[in-house]
Design a protein that fits this description.
Pfam families: COX4_pro. The chain is about 85% helix and about 0% strand. The N and C termini lie far apart (about 70 Å). It is an all-alpha fold. It has three helices and no strands. It has two domains: about 70 residues; about 35 residues.
């Protein structure tokens, strides 16, 4: 009986920590989105600076989405992670190849 109580407390603590991490990640994503809207809406910087900054913010948000909200950090999601990272790699190679063809 005591072992069952300890197990329940352990799972409650794990769930609490996981929810805390997800809420922090969600708040950061909202902040990044607001920052992106401010960059575009206020036109406070040149396009040469704004576009790379927006792309970096977007990549950070994609990373948060994969890692936290699609649970790629959890055990048992190895094959899904391989497929997603393979797709990202294929997209990257495609964009690089098209860029090379256009600029050549």
């Amino acid at each position: 009986m005591a072992e069952n109580t300890k197990s329940n407390e352990f799972h409650k603590q794990q769930s609490k920590e996981e929810m805390k991490k997800q809420l922090i990640t969600f708040a950061l994503m909202i902040i990044f989105t607001i920052l992106a809207f401010l960059i575009v809406g206020t036109e406070m910087m040149s396009k040469m600076v704004a576009i790379p900054l927006l792309l970096v913010l977007a990549l950070i948000q994609v990373g948060f989405q994969f890692y936290y909200f699609m649970h790629l950090k959890d055990k048992g999601h190895g094959m899904a992670a391989v497929m997603i990272y393979g797709g990202v790699w294929a997209a990257f190679l495609t964009v690089m190849a098209l860029t090379l063809v256009i600029w050549w």
